[in-house]
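The record is kept unedited without comment:

——
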Amino acid sequence: MRTLSYNLEKHKASGELVALAERLDLDVLCLQEVDATALPAELGPLRLADTTKRNRLGLAVYVDPERFEPLETRAFALKKGLHDWIAAPAAERLLATRLRDLAHDRELIVASFHASPLTALNSLRRHQIASAHQQIEALGPGLPHLMVGDYNYPLFRNALSIGLAETGYELTLSDSRTYTRYKFFRGHFDFATSARLDIDGVTTLPQGASDHMAILVTSHYRPDTAGDDPADGAAIDPQP
């Protein structure tokens, strides 16, 4: 499965999306900081699954309709930081879509996530990530899931990765930094967390109009582990 995550920086990079979808042969496209009212129903071969409705800086998920059938989408509010109360950029920081994979006759969940900015503490973002995983699990208990987006977590990621691993989740960084602005703000802000999926790689694309670089996540299924804990599956017989 080929999933692209892209923070459009207040919709600035929206003009790049059709070319990216066509050139990269995407299965799923997850967006952050979009103007949901300006998004088209289709981007090249991809079709809009859903968007957030209450955000100034919205989230969206597009899918390849030949590969995936959207079954249910939910947007979730997560614990707020100071910036959220003052600037109100996002009432909902998680958009999760339950999909049927028509190629493999099975279900999974893909989610677009946008954590609070660096004005908040890492402890708040850890709380948001954990809550997001809980909401995704409730949407499809036992299903494989992939959450991609802007985690705003450039420092102390080793501790985050260890904590996630203890609860059965995997954090995967891209092959190079994903954010650059001025000379002082740069690093891995955008990455993936997953359960019951094997991540083959995460590639940072060249920078476009946004201050974030898009990331391309390639993954494949583990065996059907419905009803098991995320850490219980073993990786055999991969299906792309």
